[in-house]
Amino acid sequence: MLIGVVGKANVGKSTFFKAATLAEVEIANYPFVTIKANEGVGFVKVDCADKDFKIQCQPKHGHCTNNIRFIPIKMLDVAGLVPGAHQGKGMGNQFLDDLRQADALIHVVDISGSTNEKGEPVNPGSYDPANDIKFLEEELDFWILGLIQKGWEKFSRGAQQVHADIHNAVASHLSGLGIKEEIVGDIISKTGLKEKKIIEWEYDDLLNLAKNIRRRNKPMIIACNKIDVPGAWDTFDRIKSEFPDHRLLACSAECELALKEAASHGWIRYLPGENMLDVIKPDALSEQQKQGIDYIRKNVLSKYGNTGVQKVIDDGVFKLLNLIAVYPVATNNLQDKDGNVLPDCFLVPNGTTALEFAFKVHTDIGNNFIRAIDLRTKQIIGKEHVLKNGDVVEIVADK
């Protein structure tokens, strides 16, 4: 799974990425600081099953603190986009192509209105961030349209001549986007394109196809950044009412980054997504750092409940992509073959069956699946049993 972090230049996109991953990226107050895409590892947050079983887990990947499990996910930070990116402006085509493999997108918007359409700093409230939401969706739509149109005339003629299955043919034509045939088929049916011969599809038909592919293949959550700037919350409320069908969450990437870096130095105790922090080494902090932490505590954590960054990531994975967390174990004492307790936690699509999960763990386990056991209920479950979020599953396979 790969989550792409996108947005206009200078809105705090790279700050958000660094706050999520603590990866070393360059951050500055001018456009096009990021040229090459940055890769890093972020984490989604779930209640760990170890609490229910009154044990201490031993994660092989990620970590667990106070019965809160942090599961690693891949994240990608691409350079800031500008209007006309799909036409190559600002190296836009290169940056958009970086997003081909992304399963979902986090669109970072400066909700304080202090970054204009060119990515230049302006006075807070002087620019309408609603423009950015529309701009990015249009750039993605026209980028996908460009991929569809590439060789379209020859492709559509060939598909018509051999009476090819349209769903399969279009999915194959767009293989670079990794879109599934069943999704293509659903889009073609719902947009009415199924009723027309493929050689008769016109520009508006292809654009409509591109828009629907973007919505299904590149689902997006909008991180309304810089919420701590005075006046930003009023703008956030207005934008939410203007875009009722969008997922918008308020956040302050700069505050989250400050807290995570302070925690990494051992100066404070802070758990991402929480509204509390404890200063454990006050003598290590400068007066300016103490003031900064007091500001975050008063104006962000107490006011909004958290910085919002972790919430954006969690909602992107669990609500946008509709994934669930499931723990596989090799024995009924919750261990793997090496004795590690609850070592793994997998993110899988909601609706995953026990057999599908077995294949997710390992192909050999799936091929030799006998049964599974729900270790919360101690009940044997069959291969068609649909798993739930938080399930702990012992998989029994033929050796």
What is the β-strand count?
14
Low-pLDDT windows of residues? 30-34
* C-alpha-based Rg, rounded: 23 Å
Q: What is the makeup of the main sheet?
A: 7 strands, mixed
Shape: flat
Share of helix, binned: 25-40%
Protein topology:
Elements: E1 2-7, H1 13-21, E2 38-47, H2 50-53, E3 63-65, E4 68-77, H3 92-97, E5 104-110, H4 130-149, H5 152-161, H6 166-173, H7 181-190, H8 203-217, E6 220-225, H9 232-242, E7 247-250, H10 253-264, E8 268-270, E9 277-279, H11 287-304, H12 309-320, E10 323-329, E11 346-349, H13 354-361, H14 363-367, E12 369-374, E13 379-381, E14 392-397
Parallel strand pairs: 1-4, 1-5, 5-6, 6-7, 10-14
Antiparallel strand pairs: 2-4, 3-4, 8-9, 10-11, 12-13, 12-14
Helix pairs in contact: 1-10, 4-8, 6-7, 7-8
Entry keywords:
3 domains, alpha/beta, 5-stranded mixed β-sheet, Rossmann fold, 14 helices, Ubiquitin-like (UB roll), 399 residues
Account of the 3D structure:
There is one protein chain. The protein has helices spanning 13-21, 50-53, 92-97, 130-149, 152-161, 166-173, 181-190, 203-217, 232-242, 253-264, 287-304, 309-320, 354-361, 363-367, and strands at residues 2-7, 38-47, 63-65, 68-77, 104-110, 220-225, 247-250, 268-270, 277-279, 323-329, 346-349, 369-374, 379-381, 392-397. The protein is an alpha/beta fold and 399 residues long. It has three domains: 2-37 and 78-141 and 219-253 and 303-315, P-loop containing nucleotide triphosphate hydrolases (Rossmann fold), CATH 3.40.50.300; 150-213, Helicase, Ruva Protein, domain 3; 323-397, Beta-grasp domain (Ubiquitin-like (UB roll), Roll). Helix 1 (13-21) runs parallel beside helix 10 and helix 6 (166-173) crosses helix 7. It is flat and about 75 Å long. Mean pLDDT is 90; it is low at 30-34.
